[in-house]
Amino acid sequence: MIIKSWKDKKENLHNGRVLKTKDGFDVIKCKECGFAHIIPIPTESELEDVYSHEYYDDEKPLYIESYIKDQDWHNVINSERYDVLEQHVTSDHKRLLDIGSGPGLFLKHGKERGWDVQGIEPSKQAHEYSTKKLDLNVFNGFFSKDTYENFNTFDVVNLSLVLEHIPKPIEMIELIRSITKKGGLISISVPNDFNPFQNILNKNLDYDSWWVAPPHHINYFNHSSLANFIKNMGYKVIHQEGSFPIDMFLLMGDNYIDNDKLGQKCHEKRKIFDINMAKDKGLCQKLRKSFAQMGIGREVVLIAKKID
User: Fold this and answer.
1) What pairs with residue 99 in β-bridges?
2) Is residue 14 assigned to a domain?
3) How far apart are the C-alpha atoms of 268 and 262, rounded to whole Å?
4) Contact criterion met (CB below 8 Å) for 19 and 25
5) Could you tell me if residue 36 is inside a domain?
């Protein structure tokens, strides 16, 4: 067993068992943080260019186009998320902040349901689309200790596929707590990494750990580690679910890794499944909750209530 230790610039100690080494980074199961992350951890300044420009231009040049193409599917997923939120936020004037709002479809859906919504998005392309095409209130920049005071308080703060990219997730959640109303909610989705299906593929079927992607993915959560982390930050978990476990296609022999054409076919089947399952909301919700109980699902979805 390999144990590695590393201190960041503020002399915070990070140490734990190495889960994977890739591209000069070690992924450790950090004892201090309670979740897996890479070491060394990139600085915020090192990541700023990546997410304001490079990530969308070089890594995901067709991201917005494909995102809009999947709009019907996103509407189904977004509707399910707002259904859960509205079970716990009943005020007439419901306010939501979406950190990392992307092209803005989650905000658009909330606005159409009567929510007062605001976004924050570092990508210039995504910001332009959400403000000019969708007429949404979105700040172009990062949510940080330098910008959080620009925002008022919210009933809900949403982070969809954001927390895995953040070099200081503890600081991020502390700042979110400060702008969340008493009894307000945090809604988080992150990739479910080192999950049971991935472990079978990695350990028994000779698949490499393809989900490890430093420095873009800094933190690696699963259902239990995310729940424990959020509890330690002063929240009570009120909802957990897992998204469709797309890793199943790999277990069935459809190796879509590095095969964009096959990957798109698997994604299309996933969308069809989710859209059809949404026709029976009760069954759909039971299934998603059972995914979380078994530790599977491609994404971890968690909603927690702020404890004052």
Assistant:
1) 120, 159
2) no
3) 10
4) no
5) no
Total tally of structural domains belonging to the chain: 1
Residue 74: closest CA among 182, 177, 161: 161
Regarding pTM above 0.90, the answer is yes
Q: Domain holding 170: CATH number?
A: 3.40.50.150
Closest Cα to residue 72, out of 271, 308, 244?
271
Per-residue model confidence as pLDDT tens for the chain (308 residues): 578 777 776 667 899 999 999 999 999 999 999 999 999 998 877 777 666 555 555 545 577 888 889 999 999 999 999 999 999 998 899 999 999 999 999 999 999 999 999 999 999 999 999 999 999 999 999 999 999 998 999 999 999 999 999 999 999 999 999 999 999 999 999 999 999 999 999 999 999 999 999 999 999 999 999 999 999 999 999 999 999 999 999 999 999 999 999 999 999 999 999 999 999 999 999 999 999 999 999 999 999 999 98
Burial of 146 (0-12, 13-18, 19+ CB in 10 A): exposed
CA–CA gap between residue 163 and residue 290 (Å, rounded): 23
Identify whether the C-beta of residue 243 lies closer than 8 Å to the C-beta of residue 299.
Answer: yes
Give the range of the structural domain holding residue 231, as residue numbers without chain letter. Answer: 42-306
- C-alpha–C-alpha distance, residues 260 and 80, integer Å: 28
**Cis amide linkage into residue 214, ω under 30° from 0:** no
